[in-house]
Amino acid sequence: MNFLSLSLVFLLLEQGFAADSIRGFPEDEARQRQPFEQRLRATAESNKIREYMTRIAGEPHHAGSPGSSAVAEYALAKFKEFGLEAKIETFDALIPYPTQRLLEVVGPIRHTAKLREPIVKDDPDSSDANQLPTFNAYSANGDITAEAVYANYGMPEDYALLKLKGIEVRGKIVLVRYGRSFRGIKPKVAAENGAAGCLIYSDPKDDGYFQGDIYPKGPFRPSSGVQRGSVMDLPLYPGDPLTPGKPSVAGVVRLKIEEAQSLPKIPVMPISWEDARPILEQIEGEVAPVDWRGAIPVTYHIGAGPVVVHLKVQADNATRPIHDVVARLKGSVFPDQYVVYGNHHDAWVNGATDPVSGAASLLEAARILSKAVQQGWKPKRTIVFALWDAEEYGLVGSTEWVELHRDDLLKNAVAYFNSDSTLRGAMRLQATPSLEKFIEEWMRDYPDPASGKSLLETSNQKGYRAGALGSGSDYTAFVHHLGVASLNAGFEGSTGGVYHSVYDSLRWFQYFGDPDYVFTTAFAGFMATGLARMADAYVVQFDFGRVARFLRETVEDLRKPAKSKGLNWESLDREVAKVGAAAKGFGQLMVPLEPRFASLDKTKLRKLNEAVFLSERALTRPEGLPGRDFYKYQLSAPGKYNGYGAKTLPGIREAIEAGRMEEAQLQMKVLCEALAAYTERILIATKLAGEF
C-alpha cells in the first residue's frame, strides 16, 4: 500500500477537516475546537511511538511473568512522567504455563513433532530468552493415544459432514485448522462430538506461502510457525475461569478447575503445518471436499486412521499475579463522569503488533492530552487510560477490573474506547449503535494516512454503519456485562502469518506492519481527538436515532429466514417504533438547546448527561442470554460457535438459527422489556432537556 510521509500527514492535519458542526457543542465552540484538535493531532510523534514499542516489545512479556510486571512498571512511570495520577492494580488469576508437551505419530510411519519455532537469523528477537513455548492456554491435561481424524476448521457443520459420511470421531484425536472461528470453539465442538483430543494447525492456504512470501522475506507464516493462544470458552464468560462474576482478589471463593465451565474438557495443542503434514499424509479415506483442502503439498483425505497419534499435554495450573496499569486525567466540570480508553500490554512472546502497537498508541494519546492540559486545556470529564494484563489468556485483566469496580462503572462510566493493535491499513471501528453518529463525525474530521482523504471518505460507505461488537478484546466486559457504550478502533492491516508467534517482533513490524510508524502515530492522534470530544461535550454525543435505525434494520434482517416466518413480531415492532418516536422527540428538543449549552445550569446539565449515558444500561437484562448469564447486553454478543464475531439481537437470532422457535419468541419478549426500559430512559432525558 502507498502511504504518505509523516511530514505530509502533518500538513494535512494542519489544514483541518471539520467542515460541519460537532454535536454536543454550540456552533461557535465547535468552530473553535478545530484548531485545538489540529494541535492535538500534530502533537503525536513517531519517535515517541518507536521509543515505547522498542521498550515494551524488546523482550517477551507474557502474563504472570517478570517481563509483564516490568512492562507494567514502565507504563506506570510513563503515565506519571506525563503528569497523570496512576497506579497498578494487581489480581491473582489462573495463568497456567505448560510443563510437558509431546506429539508423536505412532504409526504407520513414525514422526516426532518439533513443537518449536526456529530462530530466524535476520530477526534477533526470535532467539530471545524466556519465550513461552507453543501451547494453548487452559488446555486440559491429558496423555492419550488414538487415531487421528481431519475435521477441516472444526466447525459444527464440519462434524455434521463427517457424521453424514459415517466417520466416527468419538475417542479420536481431531486435527483442525485455524480460522473461521475463535480457537476456543474448536476443542469445545470437538468435545461435544466425543473427541478425546484436539490439534489445531496453521494451514499455509490461510496464512502461509499460499498467500505470499513467508517470513523473513515476506510477512506470512513459515512452515514451522505456530499460533499460540487461549482456548477458554469466551462466549460463555471471559476473565479468570475460577472466579466467574467476581474479581480475583484475596478472599474470593474460587472454583476447582474441574468446576470451571469455561475451560475445555480435552487436551489441545497448536502445531505448525510442518508438524501437521505427517498426520495428514497418512490419513486414509475419500478425498476431502474442495473447501476442506488446504495448501500443504499432500492430498487431503477424510477418514479415521490408520494414522495413530500420541498426544501429551501438562500445565501447572498455577495462580499468578497480573498487573493492570490505570491512569487518570481529572475532569474539571464533571469529574465523576469518565471515559475509559484501554489496550492490553501482555503478549504471547514479544508482541510488537499484538498488542504493543496499540499500547504504544495509547501511551502517546495519554502524552498528547497531558500536554494539552499543561497548555491550559481543562477537560470537563475525567479520562481514564488503562493498560490491561492477561488479555491473551481470556480478557482477564480487564474483566477482573470491571468486576472489582462494577458499582462505580455502572454509575459513572460514560463510554469505553478500546484498541488492540494498529497497522498500515484501513480504519475499522465496531461500536454500540448509540456511538455510531459520534464515530461518523469523528472519522469525517480526521485524515487517512494513506490517501489524505477523510477516514469517513475512505470507509467507502454511503450511509455509515459501525460494525457490531462481538468479543476477543477488552471491551467485552464493559459492554456485554455492564452495558457501557463502547467502541473498538484500529487501522486494520494484515498480520500476515506471525499472529501469536515468536515472529511478531519489532523487525516484522518495521518491515511489514507500519514502516516509519505513520499509522500508529496517526492512530494516537485519532484516539486523543475522540477522547477529547467525548470528555468535553456539554451533552455526551449519544444518538438514540441510530439505535432505532439499527433495531429496524436488524429486525428486518431477522425476518428473512424462512424458518422465522411463524414468529409473532407485533410486540417487537411496537417497541422498536416507540424507541424511534422517543429518539425523534429527544432530538427535536436538543436542536434549539444546543446554542445555549454554555449558559445552562451545571447541576441540571449533569443530570441530563447521566440520563443520556445511563440509557445504555437499560439494554441489558439481569438474567443475561440463554445459558450465558455473563452476557447481559441485548443488542449484540459473540456467537456461541464463532467466539469473536458478533451476533446482533443474539437471543432471538441464535434461537432462530437453532430452530428453537419457542425460545426465539421468549427472547423477543425479553428484548421488548429491555426496549421498553430504554424508551423510558430516553423520555426521562427528554423531560430533563425540556426543563432548561
Helices, strands, pairings?
Blueprint: H1 6-15, H2 27-43, H3 46-56, H4 66-81, E1 85-94, E2 98-107, E3 111-112, E4 136-137, E5 142-150, H5 156-164, E6 173-177, H6 185-192, E7 197-201, H7 204-207, E8 229-230, E9 268-271, H8 273-280, E10 286-287, E11 301-302, E12 304-315, E13 319-329, E14 334-344, H9 352-374, E15 381-388, H10 391-394, H11 396-404, H12 406-412, E16 413-419, E17 426-431, H13 436-444, H14 455-458, H15 476-482, E18 486-492, H16 506-513, H17 518-536, H18 544-559, H19 570-593, H20 602-614, E19 636-638, E20 646-648, H21 650-657, H22 661-690
Helix pairs in contact: 1-2, 2-17, 3-9, 9-17, 11-15, 18-19, 19-22, 20-22, 21-22
Plain-language structure description:
By secondary structure, the protein is of the alpha/beta class. The longest helix is centred in the C-terminal third of the chain and has 30 residues, at 661-690. The model is unreliable at 1-19 (pLDDT under 50). The chain folds into three domains: 6-95 and 326-388 and 416-536, Aminopeptidase (3-Layer(aba) Sandwich), CATH 3.40.630; 98-315, Glucose Oxidase, domain 1 (3-Layer(bba) Sandwich); 544-690, Transferrin receptor-like, dimerisation domain (Transcription Elongation Factor S-II, Chain A, Up-down Bundle), CATH 1.20.930.40. It is globular. Helix content is 38%, strand content 17%. It has a seven-stranded mixed β-sheet with strand order 1-13-15-14-16-18-17, sandwiched between helices. A seven-stranded mixed β-sheet has the order 3-2-12-5-6-7-9. Strand 2 (98-107) and strand 3 form a beta hairpin. Helix 1 (6-15) runs antiparallel to helix 2, helix 18 (544-559) runs antiparallel to helix 19 (570-593) and helix 21 (650-657) packs antiparallel against helix 22. It starts with 5 loop residues before the first helix and ends with a helix.
